[in-house]
Design goal:
Number of helices: 9
Shape: globular
Mean pLDDT: 97
């Protein structure tokens, strides 16, 4: 496949965010080129836990999560893509009274936006997720419509839909330069064996944790840091794992959900690793065992059969960067999602489409623009895992 020499928009990054944006623009009849330096979804998307939730403290995040859930369901139910989408809900376990007070406010906000989130007693939480120990818990929060699915399958689905709509997707291709003339994007240099100059008036930066380097090509500072996170997958368990919700111990961020006949588990490291390092740390597994012993001791004897480490793309306020540059016309960004990018990808694709086309998105994302940092107006997301 040859790289086209012109495109209405060039999307840098072939994960969920870039492919959803490409699909939405191509569906509108725009010529779109996706440039991915490795394989589709090979960055943070393929290493995600696959959770899909609408439970957030920020209204924009709630709307993005809820809209994306609708799209994931549409991909599986209407378009026939096998995403292994399970709508077993998200269960947050709370052990601090101050968290209860804050989550009660969040539940009220989510309910006002049409979500079915509700507070639970500890007994109700343990009934939903029977392997949980009630020790130290004071309450829980549950949304039955939240879900999880397989990230690689979602990437394949969006790539398929984008290609059907007319987008060109180039893997093993790298954007090495973005030309800016008189404050406007004019072209992208793409290297894929040979070098091609692609004339375009719009660039969407969807390069995840590597987005800062893309921003530097046009002199835009995208404040994103890489944070390592581990995931483990267990052998089959002796209960119906697919019947339990995505369960999160909020105070420790230890979580688990079904993965085939076993479980997928995750948690932060004891000490954060802020670097581009995806090597697995044996000490993390010991830490995970301690968390399991505390919150889900029935799982202590379950064997781990696989695992990996990936990178969160973290901003100073744990909220995404979504917007269009005020300094460079035609440069748009969707990055820095701080652990909830996969679940918001489909909705953000719609937003990026509208920003490129000069339309008003379905949700107000002005508060998520890069400008908030210059103004000192941080927009803290509190429900992070």
């Amino acid at each position: 496949m040859d790289i086209p020499r012109t495109a209405d928009a060039v999307v840098i990054g072939g994960g969920i965010m870039g492919l959803a944006s490409a699909y939405e623009l191509a569906k509108e009849g725009k010529s779109v080129l996706v440039v991915e330096r490795s394989d589709l979804g090979s960055g943070s998307t393929s290493k995600a836990a696959g959770g899909l939730r609408s439970q957030f403290s920020d209204e924009a995040n709630i709307r993005l999560g809820a809209r994306s859930l609708e799209t994931f369901a549409w991909l599986q139910e209407e378009r026939g893509h096998a995403l292994d989408l399970l709508r077993t809900g998200y269960l947050f376990l709370l052990s601090e009274e101050e968290d209860v007070t804050r989550f009660e406010r969040d539940v009220a906000l989510q309910n006002s936006l049409g979500l079915r989130t509700r507070m639970l007693t500890v007994a109700e939480a343990c009934e939903l997720s029977p392997v949980v120990s009630p020790d130290g818990l004071v309450a829980a929060v549950f949304n039955p419509d939240d879900a999880h699915c397989t990230p690689e399958a979602a990437v394949a689905a969006f790539a398929c839909e984008a290609r059907r709509a007319g987008a060109v997707i180039a893997t093993k291709a790298e954007a090495t330069d973005i030309e800016v003339v008189d404050g406007r994007v004019t072209a992208v240099t793409v290297v894929r064996g040979t070098t091609t100059r692609v004339e375009t008036s719009h660039v969407i930066c969807a390069a995840g944790v590597w987005s800062a380097s893309v921003g530097r090509m046009v002199g835009v500072d995208l404040p994103i840091r890489p944070l390592k996170r581990h995931v483990a997958v267990t052998e089959p368990v002796d209960f119906d794992a697919r019947a339990i919700p995505f369960t999160i111990d909020f105070s420790s961020s230890f979580y688990f959900h079904s993965e085939g006949d076993g479980l997928l588990m995750g948690a932060p490291e004891k000490e954060d690793t802020w670097e581009f390092d995806v090597h697995r740390d044996p000490a993390w597994l010991e830490h995970l065992c301690d968390l399991i012993e505390t919150r889900a001791p029935q799982l202590s004897d379950v064997e781990v059969r696989a695992g990996w480490a990936g990178l969160y793309e973290v901003t100073p306020d744990h909220n995404a960067l979504i917007g269009s540059s005020q300094e460079v016309e035609g440069f748009h960004y969707a990055c820095g999602f701080s652990g909830h990018g996969f679940l918001q990808g489909p909705a953000v694709g719609e937003v990026m489409r509208d920003l490129v086309l000069g339309r008003t998105p379905f949700v107000d994302v002005s508060g998520l623009s890069l400008d908030r940092f210059a103004a000192g107006d941080l927009r803290k997301e509190l429900t992070i895992v």
